[in-house]
Automatic annotation (TrEMBL):
Organism: Pseudoxanthomonas helianthi
Entry's EC annotation: 4.3.1.19
Composition bias, Polar residues: 343-367
Catalytic EC class: lyase
Record key words, sorted: Lyase, Pyridoxal phosphate
Name recorded for this polypeptide: Threonine dehydratase
Pfam families, sorted: PALP
Example GO molecular function: threonine deaminase activity
Length: 380
C-alpha cells in the first residue's frame, strides 16, 4: 500500500526535483539484466491488450522502481541500508532488490498486514518490523528510524528513481503501438512513469481510480486536502494525499482520469480469472475495469499486480456472478455487384418499382469497415 504524505504545505520540500524521459531510458538500461520483459496478452473478450505485471518478479511492477532506486544509489556511491514502509508490494520489491544487490533492507509493516506478504518479504532476507495498527503509524515509524540511524528511506512512489523505474513498463508497451494506455493510480508513480515514456510518441495515457479513493483526480483539479479512503478491494491504491512530484507529472501528462465503481472492479477481477485465466489483485484489475469507459481501437491496460489473498479471491469467486460478455459481431462482407449490373437499373423483388442502385465509393466502403472494426474491438 502506498504511503501518505505530509501536509500540502511541505510541497516546497521537493523543490525542482523532476524526472525526464532520459531517466526512464537510463532505468531501462539498468533493469534489463535483472528483470525479464513481461508479456502482453490480448484479452479478446474484453477487446483490450493486457500488460501482465502480475507475472513480474514478486508479482507486481513495484520491483522495477525499487531495483532502479537501489542501482542508481549505488552509482552515486550511496551504500546506506534502505528502509521503507509498506503493507505489501513495495516491501516485497525492496526486499527482492536488496537481496539481489546485497543491500541491508528493513521494511516496516503494520500489524494486520497479510501473512502471505509478510512471508514474502522475509523470504528475501529483509528485516520485517511490525509497528502500529495502521499504515500511517508504520510510515511515521519508518521515517523516524531512517533519521535516527541514517538509513535511506525509499518512498513507494514520490521518488525520482522509483518513478523512472516504473516508467520502463511504458517502454515495453511502446513497440505494440497502442493508441491509449490505461494505468491504475494510487500515489501516481506508475502513471507518471508510463506517461513520461509514451506521451512523446503520441499515445494517450489515462489513469484509473476507485470511487472514494480518488485523491489524485481531486489533486489534479486543485483539491489537495487529505481524504479518508473508503474500504475497497483495491487496497494497493488507497492514498490519502498523492505524491508532490507525481501530482505535477500527472497533471501535465495524463489525458484523463476515470473513476471506477467498486462493483465494476469486483466483477472485472472475477471475469479476468474465469475468462482469461489470469489472477490479479484489486488494484491490478483497476485499469481493465476502466477500459469500457475509454475509447480507442488499440487499448492497453496495465495489470499492475497479482498478490491477492487466497481467501479474498475464493470469496469473490463464490459471491460475484458477472454478466455474460457481449457476443462478438461477425463482419459481413458486402456482396459485390456483377460487372454487367453496375450503374444499371435493377428491379426490386415483389415490386414493380424500378430503382437505380449506385455503387458505393471506396471511401464509403472503408468508412463502413472502420466503423464495424471499432465496434468489434471495443466490445466487451
Amino acid at each position: 500500500m502506498p504511503e501518505p504524505r505530509a501536509a500540502a504545505g511541505s510541497e516546497s520540500d521537493v523543490g525542482d526535483v523532476g524526472v525526464t524521459v532520459a531517466d526512464v531510458l537510463a532505468a531501462q538500461s539498468r533493469l534489463r539484466r535483472y528483470l525479464p520483459v513481461t508479456p502482453l496478452h490480448h484479452a479478446e473478450r474484453f477487446g483490450v491488450m493486457l500488460k501482465l505485471e502480475n507475472l513480474q518478479r514478486t508479482g507486481s511492477y513495484k520491483v522495477r522502481g525499487a531495483l532502479n532506486a537501489l542501482l542508481a544509489g549505488r552509482e552515486r556511491g550511496d551504500a546506506r541500508p534502505v528502509i521503507c514502509a509498506s503493507a505489501g508490494n513495495h516491501a516485497q520489491g525492496v526486499a527482492w532488490a536488496a537481496y539481489r544487490l546485497g543491500v541491508p533492507a528493513i521494511t516496516v509493516m503494520p500489524h494486520g498486514a497479510p501473512d502471505n506478504k509478510i512471508a514474502g518479504v522475509a523470504h528475501w532476507g529483509a528485516t520485517v518490523r511490525q509497528h502500529g495498527d495502521s499504515y500511517d503509524e508504520a510510515f511515521a515509524f519508518a521515517r523516524d528510524l531512517a533519521q535516527l540511524h541514517g538509513y535511506r528511506f525509499l518512498s513507494a512512489f514520490d521518488d525520482p528513481d522509483v518513478i523512472a523505474g516504473q516508467g520502463t513498463v511504458g517502454i515495453e508497451i511502446a513497440p505494440y503501438a497502442p493508441d491509449v494506455v490505461i494505468v491504475p493510480i494510487g500515489g501516481g508513480g506508475l502513471a507518471s512513469g508510463v506517461a513520461l515514456a509514451l506521451k512523446s510518441q503520441g499515445v494517450r495515457v489515462v489513469g484509473a481510480q476507485v470511487e472514494g479513493v480518488d485523491s489524485m483526480a481531486r489533486a489534479i483539479k486543485g483539491d489537495v486536502r487529505e481524504i479518508a479512503p473508503v474500504p475497497t478491494l483495491a487496497d494497493g491504491v488507497k492514498v490519502k494525499v498523492p505524491g508532490f512530484i507525481t501530482r505535477r507529472l500527472c497533471a501535465n501528462l495524463l489525458d484523463d482520469v476515470v473513476i471506477v465503481r467498486e462493483a465494476e472492479l469486483r466483477e472485472t477481477l472475477v471475469r479476468l480469472a474465469l475468462e482469461e485465466n489470469l489472477i490479479a489483485e484489486g488494484a491490478g484489475a483497476l485499469a481493465l475495469a476502466a477500459g469500457r469507459r475509454v475509447a480507442g481501437r488499440r487499448k492497453c491496460a496495465v495489470v499492475s499486480g497479482g498478490n491477492i489473498d487466497a481467501t479474498v479471491l475464493a470469496r469473490l469467486l463464490s459471491e460475484v456472478r458477472p454478466r455474460p460478455p457481449r457476443k462478438p459481431r461477425r463482419r459481413v462482407p458486402e456482396p459485390a455487384a456483377p460487372p454487367s449490373a453496375r450503374n444499371e437499373t435493377t428491379v426490386l423483388p415483389f415490386s414493380s418499382v424500378t430503382k437505380t442502385q449506385p455503387r458505393a465509393t471506396p471511401k464509403q466502403t472503408a468508412s463502413r469497415r472502420a466503423a464495424v472494426e471499432a465496434i468489434e474491438e471495443s466490445a466487451w
